[in-house]
Amino acid sequence: MDFFEAAETPEPQFTSGIDFxxxxxxxxxAAVTAPFGPAxxxxxxxxxxxxxxxxxxxxxxxxxxxxxNILLLTFTNKAAKEMLERVADLTGVSPKLFWGxxxxxxxQRLLRRFGAPVGINPSFNIIxxxxxxxxxxxxxxxxxxxxxxxxxxxKAKVIANLxxxxxxxxxxxxxxxxxxxxxxxxxxxxxxxxAAAYEKEKRKQDVTDYDDLLEMWLRLLQSDPTFxxxxxxxxxxVLVDEYQDTNRLQAGIVDxxxxxxxxxxxxxxxxxxxxxxxxEFDNIMSFPNRHPGGNIFKIETNYRxxxxxxxxxxxxxxxxxxxxxxxxxxxxxxxxxKPYFVSTVDTTQQAEFxxxxxxxxxxxxxxxxxxxxxxxxxFQAMDLQMELSRSGIxxxxxxxxxxxxxxxxxxxxxxxxxxxxxxxxxxxxxxxxLLPKVGPRTAExxxxxxxxxxxxxxxxxxxxxxxxxxxxxxxxxxxxxxxSLAETLRTCYHASQHQRPDExxxxxxxxxxxxxxxxxxxxxxxxxEDLTGLIGFAARFQELSELLAQLILLxxxxxxxxxxxxxxxxxxxxIHQSKGLEFPVVFILGLxxxxxxxxxxxxxxxxxxxxxxxxxxxxRAQDQLFLSFPQFQSQGGPPRKMPPSRFLASIRPDYYEAVxxxxxx
Length: 665
Ligand code: ATP
Ligand code: MG
Prior knowledge:
Helices cover 49% and strands 12% of the residues. The chain has 665 residues and is α/β, with parallel strands linked by helices. The protein has four domains: 6-116 and 213-299, Rossmann fold (3-Layer(aba) Sandwich), CATH 3.40.50.300; 126-205; 307-394 and 562-660, P-loop containing nucleotide triphosphate hydrolases (Rossmann fold, 3-Layer(aba) Sandwich); 405-553, PCRA, domain 4, CATH 1.10.486. 44% of the residues are buried.
């Protein structure tokens, strides 16, 4: 039976049998049993937000509300599944009877049934990100055949990302193209045209991308009074988890359906960390204005962390409210240790400190699974990954790939490998394959031709790369890139004869690949930081061969052994990915100003979001918290001293233990 029909069948009167007062604390109880009407639950980190939301559902059922009249919204599929399962466990009511899931999931179901008035064929296909990018490239090629060939123009992927961001923030693509990306302003109108044509093409093909599921849903609500009436009478109660991360489209949907104001939004404004993807901090701040007459419930009891960790976390918010709601976390757990702020000389010593401390903790009875290592950006964990691999401590990177396995890192490393050893055809294939129309076969032929040509002319391989004869063998659309690549390789090769390894890496990073990176990836800035990090890493070595040996070891089987199922491992993750999780022991790396807060974020005026990230990271810890501060940065050139993170200035000095790491630690 169709989900929709199932949801329509009337439910018998339900009683959960839950003793709400006994199972909840006073603050949670007040929120769970709040009168029908708007309610904003501002729950601090670790205070049981999801718990509150699930009990609210049970309570609504007890009040005679039918499950089919409850709309439960959240963000990730995992969170939605977990939420619905918890509700089912608590109430015994099948998750199928609720309207629950991600915004996209619910949008999709409603559009199929009610989308005709806005021209949606009910059997539309949903295209994924890859498909939507290739559809956009087709459209661009049709409108302006030369556009994508011009290497100064952004690639389709970058434009797709820009269009998506603009749609999720209800902004104008053209204006945003001029504002957010460093392209010449003439590109704005072109990108606007591409976006409009892309839109048309999707309608023509009866396909929708992910953003359509939200955008059309909102449009349908705004343009079709029958649909609006249906939604707002059917969904008597709307409950939203992680509300602080809603974007404008999502908030618009909730507000429109919830014009009856029976909306409960649960979130923590201090944990809003996805504005870079379009999350709108102001949604939660202005909720009371958009849904007036309700209550704001603050759940400030924290079940997760020791009083010492919480005092520290509270200080972060004291110092910088960032325009958010005032709140304080109250501990219920017994005393523990103060957080440690540990200065190390540099990131090499930071890695040593973390590993020695982990060994001690394990000797004291901790297991690897109790420990998480958090960092602001992937490249900051590079030294640690290397040392962990050497030490044999099992670790897992739960967000993304290992640093050295990232595509852009491998792309650069392949160029360095090749410069050191031009017989390394695999390396040649990797970077040559980045050029348009160059596949493995073409790369192979090209390599054979160059080798032959160099030999015949008694010239060095690198010196003939840019010669007319060689360029003629390169597919026409790849020639511009090839010439720039050839120049970079030649420069790197000659530098490798007498310059330091980090200088060679720097030349590669600043050469052809630097430009290529910018046009290929929407997040080129953070990838560029990774590569700058790689230059710093190279500075640890005297010889190029040493550097390469180490890089290869890092990717070897021994260091990359797979984790047995059920094996306890340390987890390494970015702070963004650690949201909602909790761990007994937390290490936060790189508390130097420039690393955390990240320079780029400060320059772009996003200090408030960095502070919220710091808050999220600290509040993951249950028992022990170690913050480490590498004092010197060595990114090529002489080591540069960094000040401690400015975050520390807002923390009372007696709230943490400042220590200096020595090898006798
Ligand atoms: P975050 O802000 O990190 O997302 P959260 O507010 O969603 O946290 P939960 O993860 O739901 O909080 O809960 C944190 C911990 O506190 C969980 O281990 C949960 O079981 C526990 N907890 C919450 N409420 C209670 C309660 N009333 N009694 C006992 N334990 C509780
Ligand atoms: Mg949570």
